[in-house]
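Q: Structure tokens for this one, please.
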Amino acid sequence: MDKDRKEELWNVGFACGELIPDGYDAVSDTYSEVYYVAGYKNDHHATAMLDPQLVRASYISDGIGCNIVLVSIDCIGISKTDLDRIKDDLKGFVRDNNIDAIHIASTHTHAGIDTLGLWGPIGIDGKNSAFMEKIAEVTKETIVRSCENIRQGRMYFGYADTGKIQRDSRYPEIYDKNIYRIRFAPEDGSKGLEIISYDAHAESLRSENTKVSADYPCYMGRKIKDETGNEFMFFAGAVGGLIMTHVLKDERGLEYPYETNVIKTGEYLADCVLSIDNERELYPDLSTDTEVFDVPLDNQLFATMSFLGVLSAKAVRGEGRYSLALRTEASLLNLGGEEGINIA
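A: Here is the predicted structure, written as tokens:
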């Protein structure tokens, strides 16, 4: 790293938008339309809202030519087909603002509204078209707004051990106990941004839950903001199949009710984040690279659901058992150059 570069600053902006479906009434805490809770079982109707799903976006620039937007959506997942439509609509904006890449990820909450189509009645698309359109519109608006409130500042990376809160339900039991943070501190002394990654499915509410929620990332972010004033983004780490958090217990050794458990879990992880004491500075040096590739599609049910339109992910010609494939992509992001961190 050039010594002069260490004196330069990052340029970062942030914005947040709510994903509340039109069929929700806040007074009665009910839905006038059918929405399916994603992540566990079919035909699982949403009955209320514990906390709203959000879209969060951050514009990050090293000030010397690389500019990206990171987006985190509180949902189970979104197909590349749907994400490509969002990016296509922003092509003019991307060109005008010299943005090199927009990276969009889901938090993988198991208490969000179905965004893939898998959790309606068997064989029936579980997505609500109006809600999917809302996700697209709010995501685009949030990306644009993240580029409108840019501040200069320094960026730091650190991590903390989260102890024995995780469990792996399948062998081999392998997971990372650390929670990771990238922290942006504006030079003007205003409140900053904390980008968190952790290896655990967002399913602290468990399968009995029928309330829409962003799960533990919501309550982690709320406590971090209450304690520091900083904004918050969450990205799921290597959650595998299947790494999750234990149901926490009270002083009598009894498991908390799930709605209490999700709050306690989020606040416990927030405390871990707030305890980070090993930060090192990431100097302004940013690069990003994306590779698009095809994965053979051998799952007959997946191929059928895609053909019927239940899944928005569309198959392409490929080398699979049925001469079909799914087009996907992998990206590598570097913050801080050779002395920094790589994120896949």
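A few notes: The radius of gyration is 20 Å. The CA atoms of residues 205 and 258 lie 5 Å apart.
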